[in-house]
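hiii, so i know i said id send this last week but things got crazy w the move. better late than never?? heres the sequnce for the chain we talked about at the cafe, plus the structure i predicted for it. fair warning i was half asleep when i ran it
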Amino acid sequence: MMGQHERTESLFYYFRLEDQIPEDHLLRLIDQYVDLSFVRERLKPFYSSSGRPSIDPEVLLRLLLIGYLYGITSERRLLEEVKMHLAYRWFTRLDFGAEIPDHSTFSKNRHGRFRQSAIFREVFEEIVCRCLKEGLVEGKNLAVDGTMIKADASRESRVPRDQLKAAAQVAKTAAEYLTELEQDNPVSGSEMVSTTDPDAIPATKGGRTAAMAYYDNYLIDTASRVIVEVEATPARFSQETIAARRMVERVEKLGIRAEELAADKAYGSGEFLAWLLARGVQPHIPVIDRRHQTDGHFTHDQFRYEPAENAYYCPEGKMLSFKGRRRDSHGYLYRSTEAQCANCPQKKRCTSGPYRRLFVHEQESVRQTVRALRGTPAYERSHRARYKIEALFAELKQRVGLGRVRLRRLWNVGEQFLLAATAQNLKRLVRFLTQPRPTLRAQLG
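okay and structure toks below
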């Protein structure tokens, strides 16, 4: 006989949220292993000692973390999900009698206490330190790279820089930007500026149509795939090595002293390689090398250098004398004379001009040192491990949902990147802490 269930509502229920959350649920594991109470103490100076009690800042942080852990990019939708999801309510300490905060609460705190206290960076660094303490991160072998994240702005929102004042009359973001220009301008030199998000600039990768974007730069521990540093920058090629330097310097304050750094060719400038070697870091990075880009003519390697004369000799024995330093190109110029090259039988193979020029980078000795590392077992190991960072970027865009930023301006974007990286690290930390550890008997064999 087919049964039929009639919908009825009892006046009273015995119900505990605690009983409904599985022991192996991600949020229960994070709550068990990670103490976030320091947030309240850290933000205490930013609250008044009188007046109505505000929403607990730890609750706001827990709400934001849920969004990044489960790819809920809209704060309005996040709060709707918290209303209906038992595990979300349990993790945020918002039981059925508690009022769910309004989405505007995030915005008020973000522009006030959160930004003033740099709390998102502190939370990120706290998790990295915990990974270090537990032995998940060793920090000897690192990799760096950046990925393009679309901005919340369109190319059509750009106006010539000299029209910004007029645009500021109707665009609040442009007005704020003009006020801040005297203090800091992350995209100085741009002829066109977006009135929607002045810190975003058009960029493209892989031959696709250019879009307004930022770079999300990661520095990772390759063994554990833990993100040890994050840096948001404008989407400019030149910003990648700048971000890498900042991140390497910051992790040193956390006690991470890298021995090897892997990266792609974008980081292979002589200046950056020299900077790494000076810090005792082995650059496992392909050198940016234009020595062989000579349109079929003799290459740099076919010229012989004589240190005593500070001159180069071509394959025909003609001298290219030193002509001075080129500050804009970070190197030195050597060249022959028209008379030397006029009747040379090899001239067609050497140059199409009246004489041969040879440019030598000022960090050529450093570049030679780094070239020599290529092919060594350590270099090849780093080269293979470097691609782990691509998996983290894929997770960022597909799982965390950050293929496009939701907030505008560089500092807001930076906070999004920090929270996203924190969520990625939390997953790896609790997975590591819940793994069965080998017993002493097993270790001894």
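btw Residues 89 and 95 are 6 Å apart (CA to CA). thought thatd interest u
miss u guys!!
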